[in-house]
Amino acid sequence: MYNDRLTLPPPSSCQFSQAKEMYLRACRASPSGLTWRGVGVACYKMGELGESETALCEANILNNTDPLTWAYLTLVCLKTGRPVEAEQALKFAVKTGLRTGEEVVEEIRQEMTSHSGDHAHQHIPHLLTQLS
């Protein structure tokens, strides 16, 4: 059984561009939801939101039950001004088992804080309270 929890080392120990290249090589050798999520997360961390979304969508095609893929899609949608899509992605993240302790949950909370006056995000904090 393989570990479906992909984590990237902190930026101080690994350049995200190197991580992106590593995951792209893995995608060419053996594409999976996990390898495409790796590309998507690395791109997100570098601010390449379009590439991140493309990779995360590919990950979702291969495995649409990965809560971390849905969570990063939530972040991409928040950062690109698409709150309705962000809410839908977060619903799927919660439904597929996103946990409170995941680093991405804190990133979603921080992104919500930066948009606290935006009523379009009103349902997202409620969804975050549903995490186990």
From TrEMBL:
Sorted alphabetically, the Gene Ontology BP terms of this entry are:
cilium assembly; cilium movement
What are its GO cellular component terms?
extracellular exosome; motile cilium
Name the record gives this protein:
Cilia- and flagella-associated protein 70
Would the keyword Chaperone be found if you checked this record's keyword annotation?
no
Q: Where is this region: Disordered?
A: 113-132
Q: Which domain of life is it from?
A: Eukaryota
Q: Which residues form a coiled coil?
A: none
Keywords assigned? Cell projection, Cilium, Flagellum, Repeat, TPR repeat
Q: Name the InterPro entries on file.
A: CFAP70 (IPR052628), TPR-like_helical_dom_sf (IPR011990)
**Does the keyword Repeat feature in the UniProt annotation?**
yes
